[in-house]
Write a structure and sequence with these properties.
Blueprint: H1 31-44, H2 53-71, H3 86-109, H4 114-128, H5 131-134
Helix pairs in contact: 1-3, 2-3
The protein binds 2'-deoxycytidine-5'-triphosphate.
2'-deoxycytidine-5'-triphosphate binds at residues 1-2, 47, 50, 66, 98, 101-102.
């Protein structure tokens, strides 16, 4: 398991392109850039042969396990992780990155536009969890219908508002 601390990183320029440190970057990192860098990284090493959908999925799951280990046995921790050491946060960033990079690569290899798919899924989620039915509630979408106020005995137009169809 990678233990962070930054000592193993070189950030040297490679044929894969610009590897400037995050501190030198002002603009947001795009999924397209990560996809390209992962593709270049694999190609340079002749690793396309290993980056099959199944292998990438297993690698992704393995990294999710490493990410989980960081939180294992700690109990609940406050948001922002105020008490964590710099090295611990760097390690967390590394494991989160491994998950993201394998997810981006897996999506690419499967021919899925991850950004577009995620935007579409956000819309599906919004349709499944209408604000008026789910605000302040963590209920699953198939349970939130119970959040509807009891039907009014007067002025009930019966228009069925509150449908939780995903509508896509
Ligand atoms: N066949 C591979 C091997 C590695 N990587 C890249 C993607 C991940 O970001 C990272 C994973 O590297 P390691 O398998 O060395 O895993 P860790 O970085 O977690 O190191 P360790 O397992 O020693 O903790 O390297 C890759 O794309 N394809």
């Amino acid at each position: 398991m990678s233990m962070g601390g930054g000592t193993e990183k070189s950030f040297a320029s490679t044929a894969a392109g610009d590897m400037t440190t995050p501190k030198e970057r002002e603009e947001d990192v795009s999924l397209a850039e990560l996809k390209k860098k992962m593709a270049d990284f694999a190609k340079e090493r002749d690793w396309d042969q290993f980056h099959s959908p199944r292998n990438l999925l297993l690698a992704l799951v393995g990294e999710v396990g490493e990410l989980s280990e960081i939180f294992q046995w700690k109990g609940e921790v406050p948001k922002g992780l105020p008490d964590w050491k710099k090295e611990e946060k760097e390690h967390l960033g590394e494991e989160l990155s491994d998950v993201l990079l394998y997810l981006v690569r897996l999506s690419d290899i499967c021919g899925i536009d991850l950004g577009k798919a995620a935007l579409r899924k956000l819309q599906v989620n919004a349709n499944k969890y209408p604000v008026n039915l789910s605000k302040g509630s963590s209920k699953k979408h198939n349970q939130i219908i119970n959040n509807l106020p009891p039907p009014s005995t007067t002025n009930d137009n019966g228009n069925g508002s509150g449908s939780v169809d995903d509508g896509v």
